[in-house]
Design a protein that fits this description.
5 strands; Ubiquitin-like (UB roll); binds FE2/S2 (inorganic) cluster; 5-stranded mixed beta sheet; globular; alpha+beta; single chain; DNA polymerase, domain 1
């Protein structure tokens, strides 16, 4: 069965006919071609597929696409400005070595954004907690945490 849903994706109004069994990661990657969102485990264990739905970081591999009806969805593709300037969180990951192979990076960055949008002064423990569901196979956790902490000193991370 298919259902027509409407939602906001990275600031744009979207209307899309989705199969009821599709996950949000399937809709984004396979149907809409937004492959910035990665899929690793496909069962909620690695966080690679993290996107933001109504300000909350969610595992898009477990989230049914039909459930975004009427909601606001943010993916890694929506972070850079229209002029192409990277979002401060992305800049910080690049500058502080928070990216190695990059497979986990979109999920790490979206989890970080959900946290810092809500709590721009998040402390080390709060950052660790927010990223607890995101796994990095390159084991770059120290640099990843440093990258998120450094955003606090850059200012304007919501811009
Ligand atoms: S791909 Fe969704 S949590 Fe691993
Ligand atoms: S940078 Fe390679 S998985 Fe994290």
């Amino acid at each position: 069965m298919a259902t027509n849903i409407s939602f906001i994706l990275n600031g744009d109004e979207i209307s899309y006919e989705v199969k009821d069994h599709w996950t949000l990661s399937h809709l984004l990657r396979e149907e809409m071609g937004l492959i910035g969102t990665k899929e690793g485990c496909g069962n909620g264990e690695c966080g690679a597929c993290t996107v933001i739905v109504d300000k909350l970081a969610v595992n898009s591999c477990l989230y049914l696409a039909i459930e975004v009806e009427g909601k606001i969805v943010e993916t890694i593709e929506g972070l850079a400005s229209t002029s192409g300037a990277l979002h401060p969180i992305q800049q910080s990951f690049v500058k502080n070595g928070g990216i190695q192979c990059g497979f986990c990076s979109p999920g790490m960055i979206m989890s970080s954004k959900a946290l810092l949008d809500k709590n721009p002064d998040a402390n080390h423990e709060e950052i660790k907690h927010a990223l607890a569901g995101n796994i990095c196979r390159c084991t770059g956790y120290v640099q990843i945490l440093e990258s998120v902490e450094a955003v606090k000193n850059m200012g304007g991370q919501n811009e």
